[in-house]
Structures are given as structure tokens and as C-alpha cells.
Design a protein that fits this description.
The complex is a heterodimer. By secondary structure, chain A is α/β, with parallel strands linked by helices. Chain A is 52% helix and 13% strand. Classes of the chains: A alpha/beta, B mainly alpha.
Amino acid sequence: MNRIQIKKALLIAAALAVTSTAAAAGKLEIFSWWSGDEAPAKDALIKLYKQKYPGVDVIDATVAGGAGTNAKAVLKTRMLGGTPPDSFQVHAGQELIGTWVVANRMEDLSSLFKAEGWNKVLPQDVIDLISAKGGIWSVPVNVHRSNVMWYNPAKLKAWGVTPPKTWAEFLGTCAKLKAKGVAAPLVVGENWTQQHLWENVMIGTLGPQGWRDLWAGKLKFTDPRVVQGFTNFGKVMDCANKDASGLSWQQASDRIADGTSAFNIMGDWAAGYFTTTKKLAPNTGFGWAPTPDTRGTFVMLADSFGLPKGAKDRTEAINWLKLVGSKQGQDTFNPLKGSIAARTDSDLSKYGTYSKSAAADWKTNKIVGSMVHGAVAPESFTSAFGAIIDQFVASKNAQGAAAAAQQLADRAGIGK
Amino acid sequence: MLLPSVVLLALFVYGFIGRTVYVSLTDWGNDPAQALATNPIIRWVGLANYHDLFTGFLQLRFRQELVNTIFFTLFFILGCLGLGLGLALILDRNPRGEGLWRTIFLFPMSLSFIVTGTIWRWMLQPQGGVNQFPTVLGLPSGTFGWLSSTDSIWKFDWNKLPLLTAAVVGLVLVWLAVRAARTGDRTRTIVAGLCAALLLGWALFVGPNVKLLPAPELHGFNLALIGIIIAAVWQMSGYTMALYLAGLRGIPEELREAARVDGASDVGMYRFVIFPLLAPITLSAMIILGHISLKIFDLVYAMAGPDNTYTSVPALNMYLTSFRQNQFALGAAIGTILLILVAFVIVPYLASAFRSEEGHA
């Protein structure tokens, strides 16, 4: 190749580079942890975005790993390094607020909420959960319910029991089942599923308002009512399997399907597991009810997207958020993800049997946020709270656990 | 020629160690609002983070982890040395298919701890794997909660820690004094003896009154750790086997023959000729295994998960504290404690290595 040829080649390359950037009017980088089972839902959403904004080059930055454990570490590196993604997935509520909003690294989305009319279609309880310091900080794309008790209808019939409606009734049912030779009427799994159970017992004990007060700092953990909640949790744990820490939530659900245990308390992703993986039919293969004492309460967690300060492609990111919050976007995403839309005006014909019942409750129930899934407590609390639960399950010292939890809450800045 | 590497080492190893130690003496991250701020306000708090770790109400998990680390290190090293030596002795007798056996025994080492951990997690499922073995013989299946047990044995009260430490160090000093007296080193005998007397006196008269925590707090050897120790020994004993086998093969045949001519029995030959010659190998194996066990993270993460207090280790807690809870100062403090623990293992080794090097020069 002589020199002229090289020059020509370079010119052509440069020209190509110019045209390719001109063809893509912009770029958008979406950061999430949706991979594997959850990827198709995300892909559908991105496809919809590309249809609406064909010129934009969407970069799908997915970091695999359950509940975003890996993704969150990567996100921290990027945010601290000054190269935030244009928009990133986060559990709605305190997980975002306690980490990034207090550090003053997010943009307030109140004006977007007003312009898009989301204040009217999202339940007020949800708006409250994602608001803090006078702003609204993320756009919820879906809603999961975490206060669901799963059971095996055929087995319950064989044992002659019905799903208990209160925790007191639950303990009675538990004793009855134990007498019939069921070693562990309740199945729990590794640490976070025990925290999940704890919050269900606590919400049942305190009621929705008490639960809200707890996270607003108006009710101390050392309050006798909260201590009572710990005591109740201890009693409920006496009904559970002793090999909990070795089980994933799927393995715990398996014990419902095979009838080793009677009840499991888990979020509604279990519905997807039962229907898709275990091929069970709703209402016959598996059944569900709100966890005891929480009828009329919807404990929610949501995936949402926020807008970090200093996002390189701000306009495209705002378009993305508009899509995420839109009816079309949510109804595209949620039937595939196995969750329900955060909006109350979604098209229910697209959803499965379980989701329809959840969506009906979503419109009428009182809504409170989940602690273990990041809605009401910052990560610094949730992550360290696991040790308190472990300690309590071993010692059954409710006073001590409550005192430790209060100290942890003070340190995490809850109620400030 | 050496300069660039010296500069890089100074910056990326010692510079960052220094930075970590500095961060551990601040309050970075204790206030969530400052943890990830663009320009966080970081205040100097001295040893407060260390104080919190050893006596804080909330740091029970860390204290249990320290105890776990001690038991894990002990059994891991003993297991690897014992099993490795046993395998090496068998292979040293030139059994048939020796090459194949050697490969089989050494193979686990080629796996990463994550893989080992995943395999063993399957095998140690409470309702499967190892616990199902008895059913092959028609017996009821085992019920041991390999990774999920919450029981512990050999419990002691954390409040007694200063007492125990002083007693142990005191006894070591007594031993040193006795040894120095035997070799006739008077100053050494007196210094070690005095220190021992001081420490033991403190342990007897002041120690019992020191209260680290308001209430007794029991820590012990959690039975769930047994599963993790088995997996770790499985992974690393091939390595000690290889070391010992090299050592055994390095012993000249003349030496063995001479021992035989002198009338040594098989047992006697091992006891008085071969094992003393293997002592340096044992020491270097202990150093390598010791630092592996102190920094172990991936195996525990894969086998028992990050949130299992009963099987947790400090390295895991450091990761969670720093990168999940954003408490950078506290995480740095845990990291610094780990560094000190590793130094306890490595520094004596380095010192002896330097000394012998000088001797050769």
C-alpha cells in the first residue's frame, strides 16, 4: 500500500465514522441487573424505545446477579468515577434515597411526574415512598407484592387445615400440623428470606400505620409493640425448618410443591416460579393468600429508574423515563416480568391469574413498602440487619434484638 | 532497572495500605449522607472504628468472624498437613499407577474456590448429598446440618478475651524464657521472664475485672464451619502432598540406608530421620495455608452465602460493610485487622528467611 492509498483509506474511514454518528441521533445507556429470566421483559422495553426513537443507539449495560448485588457495586464505581450511566435500575424508595439522593447525586423528577400526569395514575402511597427531601426521585416500572403466603391446596385439604388469617391462628395451625407429623409447617430459606418473614410478622403485628411510623422514626424499635413483633417472629420461627440457611427461596418453594411443608412466605415472583418452572396451575397446583394479619395491606417493592446528575445523554434518558412510566411501556414489560404495573390503569387482560388478583388488591389496599427489598430502609440498614435476625433466631432475646435494631436505625439515619 | 517497579510497588501496595489505614481512622461512611457525596466531609476519629468492632453492640458478627477465623485456620492447616503428609507417605512407597494417583490428588487444586464451593454446597445440602449416603445401605438418611447448623461448641465469653490473650501470650513468654535459660542467654531469660510475670499477673488480678461488653457474649466453634473446612482441606491437601512428596524424594537414599544399617526400624526412621528433614517444608506450607485461610472469601461466599453469620469470615464482612453498607471507614478497619493478622503469620517467616539468607552470605 503506498502513501496515497493509505490516505484514501483513512479518508474513507473518517467519512464512514461521520455518517455512522450522524445516523444515530444520540446514545442512551441503560444500566440494569435484568439478565436470564428477566431479560426478555427488559428487551421488550428497549425494543419499544427503539421503535419510538429510531435514531438513538441504546447501550444495554446489564450486570448479572440476583437482586443487583453485583450491579450495585459496579454502579458505585461508575458514579464515584464520574461516568454515571444515563439511567439505572434501582429498587424504588429508600434504597435509592438513602444511598444516592442523600449524597446529592440524583435529579429531582417532580416536574416530569407533573408533566406526564403520573401523580394521578400512581397510588399516593407509592408517590410518598419514592419522595424525600421535597422531590420525587425515580420512576417505578413495576410492582411486586411481598406479603403473600403460598401453600399447596391439595395438601392442606389432606391435612384438614385452612390458610390462617392471623398470626395467632397460624400458631394454632402450626401446632395442629406438627401433631400430624409435619416436622416444619413453615419453610424458610437463607437469611434474606428470614428477614422477609420478619417484616411480614412485624407488619401483621404493627399494622400498616405502625409500620410506616417505624420507618419515619416516630415509632422506636424499642417500643413494646415492636418488641412484641420480635417475640411473635420468634414463635413463628419455631414452626420453621432448622436447615434454613442452606436453602434458596426456590428450594424453599419446592417444599411447598412437594408437600414437605405447608406454608411459605415469599414475594409474588414465586408465582412465576410455580407456573413457569414447576408447571403448576394456579389455585390447584399452588394457592396463595395475604400473609396473616395483613389482609387489606399490600407490601410492595418496585423496580424503578432514576436520572443521575451528570448523565451524558440527558434528553434521551428523559425519553426513556417517559416510556418506563407510560401505560404502554408498563403493559409491555410486566406480563413478561411476572409483576404488575405500578399504574392503576393497566390492561389486565394481558396478565396471568395470580397477577390479576394482585392488581385488584393494588388498586384498593393500603400500600406500604418492604424493608428487605429496599423500599423503606436504606441498604446500610438492611444489609446489617441480617446479623440481628441471625442473632435473634439463635437467642430469642426480643429486647436485645430490638435495642440492636434501634441502634442500627440511628446509625443508618432512619427518621432523620 | 529496578526503579520503576519500586515506584509502582510503593504507590500501589504500600501507598494503598497507608491510605486504607488512614481511612480506617476516619468516619467516612458512618453518616450515609456523606458516604457517596461528591466532596464528602471526612473527620478523623482515631481508633473509634476499632473500638466499635471489638466492643460495639452491633458488631457481634465481626467478633464471631474472628473466632471463626481462628478455628478455621487451625483445622484447615492441621487437616491439610495431616492429609497431605499421609498421601505423600503412601505415594512415596511407589504404589502401582503412582502418576495417576498423584494427578488425582493434586487435581482439586486446579479448581477455583468458587467451583469447589459450589460442588461441596451440592454435596452438603441438608437433605441431599452426603446426608443421603446412609440410605444406600438402607439406613435412615443423615440429619446433620452441614452448612446450616447454628449450634456451636467450645464457647467462651468475649469479655474474657483480654484475659485469655494475656494468659496465652504469657505462657508463650514463659516457654521462651525457659528455652533461653537452657541455652544460657541470661538477658533474654530475664526480659522474657519479667514480661511473662507482668502479663500473667495482669491476667490474674486485673483481667477478670475488664468488661468489654455490658452483657456476656458467647462465641464458639460453629458446627456449620465443619463443611467449609472439609471443602477447603479437599482443595488444598493435594498441594501439601506435592510439597511433602518433593521433600521425601529429596531425601537421599544413602541417608535411609545408613539409618537402616544403624538398625532403625521403619517407625524410627520416619521419626528421627525423615520427619525432622521435612520440618522446613511444614513451616512453609503452614505459612501459605495460613494466609489463604485468613483471606478466605470466595469459598465461604459460594458455600454458605454472604449473609450467613454463623459461617462468615472477616474478609466477607469487609466486602459487605464497604460495598453494600457504604461504611468505608469501618470496612477499612476490618481490612487493617486482617492485614495485622496476616502479618502475624508472614513476618516471623520473613524474619527467619532473612536470617538464614544472611547466614548463607
